[in-house]
Amino acid sequence: MTEQVMAAIDGSTFSEGVCDAAAWASLALEAPLTFLHVNDNHAPPEERNLSGNLLAGGRERLLEELARLDEQRARVAQEQGRLMLKAARERAIQDGVAEPGTRQRNGTLVETLEELQGDMRLLVIGKRGEGAEQASGHLGSNLERVVRTLHRPILMVPASFEAPKKVMLAFDGSPTTRKGVEMLAKSPLFAGIPVHVVIVGAETGDNRSQLDWALATLRDAGHEAEGAIRAGEVEATLRAYKDENAIDLLVMGAYGHSRIRHLLVGSTTTEMLRRASVPILLLR
Prior knowledge:
The chain is of the alpha/beta class. 45% of the residues lie in helices and 19% in strands. Strands 3-2-1-4-5-10-9-6-7-8 form a 10-stranded mixed sheet, sandwiched between helices.
């Protein structure tokens, strides 16, 4: 299948932002758009203690009734999913996407996305799902597992989305963020959008050389680009720069795989996602 923009939606309030961001990305990349809804039928059922003084026949009838209720809940969840997909498709068409597709699957979100990631050019997902949308200080557990599992770019979207006017790349000179610079330079997703490159660290010759390379790469590709080297704690420093410069989309590397890199980078990624008020594009 052609690599596409895939947007995971559920019943949360974040789904509207996901729809708008996915439509924007699909149009900018000239890539097909598919909305995905996953019915999680593998959630563990509530423990049912049927060991009381019920007669054998009564227990059998109760088990049959519980099975019918489970089947009915599954049908309702499937129909709800179809309605969500229909609404998402209509919203994307209003945003200008010609023929958005829909897919409905049974299973867990993480396993389904891992299975489908070969079809993805970009995954768009909300900050939290419907099970945690009111927990404003928390990061959705599905999002964290998805980011750690997938090997595709992931656009995390808060409750609403508007096309970005300024983009910031959190840069540390690593292979992932150098690839991020090259991706930003040539991607139609960011055509005509000013890019800020920020290194959090000391003003050293190596950091200055890395920043100069990043800015030259972006400018050679036609971007308006500026950069900064700032000392401080990573998350707080990036957040302050974002606020000072009216950044409305952040690009950064996702979790590393080694234990040491997780300790250095993983906690920063999680904290940035948890506090995010603007979309974040995570690169692998």
